[in-house]
């Protein structure tokens, strides 16, 4: 049996997309939110002496969103004062209120172990071992910390945190502090009959205590945390005039890049080949960045306008209904890739007279049959409305909610109802029951 090996030459033509560095950066620029893009431009300006960045001036409407009623909302009053940290705030109070004694030194030591939420993260036994102070002295030091502002600071766990806040509130319900101290677990587990029997009070009294505790803060120190991310610069604005929707781009809110032509002309006079090549490269870099930013703005505007056209009812109807809409729907309409749509909506915001919304929030899956116009957002709104209207003495079970939603044209399973309920932070029926 002979073994023959034959060789032949063939030509084969294939197409491949070469991802150049500039193409990769163009894709990345589309994905950037406004803050990330500003940082990217600033970094490019540091590398390119021919590129000048002109920062925008933000108008008042970026810091004062409006309520759906059209009234101005006091947005700035909702932002905590983070000019000083929690640690600095506590230190200032210690120096102001307590004399310079050994006990104050222990107080200052413990303050260093209070986390950003206001909780003490070291045990008194460990602190006593490290400082040489006695257990009584460390307990006295902690008591002094727990008398400082904000109420609840210096707590070692959630129970103690709530007790400290209740102790300093003259408006707290009768027995609230004692219930927290002696029956905290039963209160959390909603074993209210046991609590009512133990303290010889009514279930409505226990309900009042529970409602009060719901308004206390589990993280008293968080108010001194960072407020980064609260300031949003919308990419698009939607205005409604006589039931007509107008979409506009907020490009004036973006940094503007300019070419330093005077500097370029002066440098060209040197006639040095290396300098000329350097200037040419930096000029091309400027032109590429200018073009890419323009393309980014155009893409976000086109995608945003298409979304608004699909979700007209959201802007005109006060109930804010959303139609089923997917990335594929927009990509096919605009003849661009789904990944491009995804990059254009993530971290990009649209401003209206009734709030600021991320573009990706306008996408909602279809539920029910293929011909159904119901979206998952509609189902969630209906679920929330049914729970809001239920008899709180006899809350609706998930199965009952499922049946009621089916009667109203939203045919979803009990399991989906439970999932949507968790998404909306709606407790189960047993935990929604009230004893008023």
Automatic annotation (TrEMBL):
Leader sequence range is: none
Q: Which UniProt keywords apply?
A: DNA-binding, DNA-directed RNA polymerase, Nucleotidyltransferase, Sigma factor, Transcription, Transcription regulation, Transferase
**Which ranges carry the RNA polymerase sigma factor 54 core-binding domain?**
78-263
PROSITE patterns xrefs? SIGMA54_2 (PS00718), SIGMA54_3 (PS50044)
Top-rank lineage group of the source organism: Bacteria
One GO BP annotation is:
DNA-templated transcription initiation
Q: Where is the RNA polymerase sigma factor 54 DNA-binding domain?
A: 277-434
Looking up InterPro entries in the UniProt record yields: RNA_pol_sigma_54, RNA_pol_sigma_54_core-bd, RNA_pol_sigma_54_DNA-bd, RpoN_core-bd_sf
Matches recorded under Gene3D superfamilies: Homeodomain-like, RNA polymerase sigma-54 factor, core-binding domain
MF term (GO), any: DNA binding
A single Gene Ontology CC annotation of this entry is: DNA-directed RNA polymerase complex
Iron: is it a keyword of this entry? no
Q: Which family is this sequence assigned to?
A: Belongs to the sigma-54 factor family.
Protein name, as recorded: RNA polymerase sigma-54 factor
**What species does this protein belong to?**
Tetragenococcus koreensis
Q: Lineage in the entry?
A: Bacteria, Bacillati, Bacillota, Bacilli, Lactobacillales
Give me the gene this protein comes from: rpoN
